[in-house]
Amino acid sequence: MGLSSVTTGSDTIKFCIFDLRSGQHEGEELNKILFFYPADLPFSTQLSVIGLSEGLITFTRIFSPEAACEVIEAEGHSHVFYEAEPDVWMVMIVEKSKESEAIWRIDALRSVLKEVHSLFMMFHGSIRALLDKEPNGGLIRSHLYSFIMDYLSVTGQSIRIMCWKYFMLLTDLVSGPSGIHNTFRCTVSSLEDTINLFTYAVLRLSPRALSSGLSSWSYLRKGNVSSHAATGSVLANSGAVLDQFYRSRDTSSGEDPSYHIARPLQQDKWTKGKDGFLVSDIWKAEASSSVPTTPTIWLQKTDERVYLCAFQHRNLTLILLFPVTSSLNDQGISLVKQQVLENASLKIVKVEEKLSKGWGGENAYHVSGYRYLLLDGDRNVSRASPPTKVTTLTKESLVALNKLREEVDLEKSRAKSDSPDNDKDMEICIRAKNNAWVIALVTRGKELYMVLEKANETLLYASDAVENFSNRYCNGSFSLD
Asked: Which residue ranges traverse the bilayer (predicted)?
């Protein structure tokens, strides 16, 4: 589009959150910055990035008042936009590689922005509410900075986004973009709340996360060692950068920037007690208190604050939610836990035994000769090749599949704009540089992505392979008949 992007050194990514309602008067421009990464960039550069983003939003609203821009493609950068809350925008600017054929999947980047905001809301409530609570923005900045930097360190997003562009596809292949495992059940009415709980359970409450101090996506960390060092350096200096920010601002409130903030994504903060319940010292009544309180979260569907209790027996994790009321305090929660142990322990043991016998382990969904990702939008379920199998794919295959998925994303977006109520069926089959067949099938709310690296030379062979897979594992959903 000939758009000139803001460039700063060799940085490949910039991530900012800003409030359009703030900083509208001369001399108050810094007030609109709620979060910026990298945080050590000069404020003039941060304001330039946000000013460009604000201008793009204003310009595109002329043509689409109800839905401003989602992505702007410049010659050297991609600008990804997400309006998390009214007038609160999250923007990611990623540099395009001139030496590699790898591309960014815009939908994947937007999914990262949405997940950051959704998880933040679950623990801290809305950004706007914290802004209203303290209009000068110190409270929300402290919350956002701590939470997002913890998020990057825990999930490996800094590696997944900044270093291995094609591994954004790998993450989807292993975990699915928002799919819930078949053995996960939840009585929360909102799907979004269910996904948030599942995501946090994987990141911090699973047996693997408790035993290793890492999330269940930690296999992504076997990549570029230098990226670990860079991320660690940023995290180590986060406090100094935040202090610099407050010292440079002329705030009238005079409040101490050292806020008491719960950091639920910190590592090594959850442990399993002798009774099987998970305990953490992250939540405390006051900053000076050494006595932990029962964790609480917000349910977005009902805007309800609830206590979060987690019980674990072997590989089974049970999450219990109780409404926060004046009559239910920490002592009451202890009594509820005791009731669970007395009345439900035997049933929990039986459920875990049944699930363990019916679960084939990490390779349960492996299909010999196939590397695949299956998405069922109607049931919100994803199924994929196991991590150990996906990592055998070559870079050429991953790059080709990433490009194919980006094309499918674009076609789905166009089809949704033309006819929101009708899904578009697609079938795409391409040959990668390494002669692997890369395939995408979309039909009736279901999507199948597949890589066949050891397939025969002919397209007919690849078509037969997909047909056999569809008939055997997808009830014929993707069959050509």
From this structure: none
